[in-house]
Amino acid sequence: MTDTTDMRERAPRPRGPADEHEAAEILASARLRVDPELRAAVDSLPGSLRRIALYHFGWEHADGTPAAGNAGKAIRPALVLTAVRALGGDPLSAIRAATAVELTHNFTLLHDDVMDRDTTRRHRPTAWTVFGDTDAILAGDALQALAQRLLAEDPHPGAPAAAARLAACVVELCAGQRTDCDLEGRAPQEVSLEECLGMVEARTGALLGCACAIGAVYAGAGAETAAALDGFGRQAGLAFQLIDDVIGIWGDPTRTGKPARTDLAVRKKSLPVVAALASGTPEGAALAGLYGRGRPTAVADPELVAQAVERAGGRDWAQSHAADRMSRALGDLARAVPDPERAGGLLALAEYVTRRPY
Amino acid sequence: MTDTTDMRERAPRPRGPADEHEAAEILASARLRVDPELRAAVDSLPGSLRRIALYHFGWEHADGTPAAGNAGKAIRPALVLTAVRALGGDPLSAIRAATAVELTHNFTLLHDDVMDRDTTRRHRPTAWTVFGDTDAILAGDALQALAQRLLAEDPHPGAPAAAARLAACVVELCAGQRTDCDLEGRAPQEVSLEECLGMVEARTGALLGCACAIGAVYAGAGAETAAALDGFGRQAGLAFQLIDDVIGIWGDPTRTGKPARTDLAVRKKSLPVVAALASGTPEGAALAGLYGRGRPTAVADPELVAQAVERAGGRDWAQSHAADRMSRALGDLARAVPDPERAGGLLALAEYVTRRPY
């Protein structure tokens, strides 16, 4: 997706596998630093709510016995801490802020799973399937509150601005989820590419951007730098989703670990499909016939649909658009952190999320 | 419930109807001061979420046409502003904080209505019945975020402490709602009075106490004063709920405007019923036979159940316990605001919520 030759020209170090290693180290370190604060926040919950949160984060099984923990990749807290470091601040000063971002992310996961009726999250049954809708909603509400409480009690001078950014981001995440549900109910031809991109930016890009911007705030950077890092996270988030959508259709199941074509089988309005439908080509019109509303899911062969999307230009569009978004992300990063050596950690994280088995 | 003779001895002014008038004025003034800030916060939401919130607050009909607005009695914002004034602060400095409390209250109403499947709120269909569960959940999430954003952007030195208190209160509200749902699923005999009182304190008392404590924080008062005012609001909230439960069983429908005995018809575990069941009296045992789990709702005549609750001492217990809580509330108030003249506004509000048509 991203051109590694370009990368080499931008930064003095060799890129590629080394970056992946660097990103993995950054993520593991963020997990280690944030987990104690995250666990303390969850442990502060009253018993009934604590149990749901402990299950959601993978620290307990459904029956309340201890589990190894699988709280995700910690990309968002890693972005906070790495942004602080890139701008010359002390990452240790931002651990509460990084934890608040992670709590907020998990609040939205708990609620999104209820609304979307998703039954699996991080290879385990979702909280609502185990505890019911009410418990999952309440645990999510409590995690949002815990996130804001951490920031409100943080004496760091950047905490109020970070809290305001995080709250504004939650509103954007909610609006994105609202649009997503709205688009789900419409026929694919009635969904514009612009709406779809706006929804993805709100659902995926906003919190990645917010994490980076909060890092800037904690490093004491100015508004322009925070805005540029927000843009970096947003554009990288869009690139990530575009690539994720491509993998969802054309990925090799033996490499991705996901069954092939499931997105097409459930007629998900992923970006390559919407782009193909909006292409104005005869192939796009043919695709509309296969993918229209009201047709039983099983009618069209997902293999044929994938070919139709590709013929209508959906795959090429998604790949070039992902490259374009990644290039915008790198431009924003260069504005916020002109020294490539200092920008290396954020670059590695962006490449990590966008370079996936495929 | 409260003894007005006692009141006259505490404060130099005549009490009774005058207080009611004073409370009504305080509430109307709080509504007037908070509404513009509340409306601005709601108007800042993206379109799809804004529509749900505008409906919930009564500013729009379900079809999006303007409505007169019916955002409730504004008791919580009035407590914030009146507490600030009672402690010698400037209520105008706390309008954002009062609005944040009101937004938080309405976030919990939106979510509670989804979980409890309640279909009516402020004499109108609840948001989830009009827009669906997803929209009501998302609008609630967004209101919690807006509340925290208002405080995070408030330059008042008390804002961070207020934000932390409000977030901690949300966790308590969620735990209270969780306990309430848990108690709903149990047989009345399996519910202890202590659990029930704890649940009511969390669901009703906590936010009233938090509103008063935030007022103290904004007036620059110390931790002890804030704690005393928190206690005042909590105890007044418990007194309110006890009286509300008594009215729900023995209130005169022509005076309360509510149909009689509905709480009993749906086998609600209201405090007088739980007290009667826990009384250890033969009448309590007889009541358990009428009110047990698994019996069809229509079997027991609510009139007979009301008599059984009364014979088992549930009514007397609730009335004397309400008086006891009100007296604790007044003790807390006197500690926080020793000058009765200054305490008059808060006292009037506490009497307003506990002295109801009956």
TrEMBL record, chains A, B:
CDD domains: Trans_IPPS_HT
InterPro entries named among the record's database cross-references: Isoprenoid_synthase_dom_sf, Polyprenyl_synt, Polyprenyl_synt_CS
Coiled coil residues, start to end: none
Region (Disordered): 1-21
GO function term, MF aspect, one: prenyltransferase activity
GO biological process: isoprenoid biosynthetic process
Keywords: Magnesium, Metal-binding, Transferase
Alphabetical list of NCBIfam families matching this protein: f2_encap_cargo4 (NF041169)
Family under the similarity heading: Belongs to the FPP/GGPP synthase family.
Name of this chain's protein: Polyprenyl synthetase
Annotated source species: Streptomyces silvensis
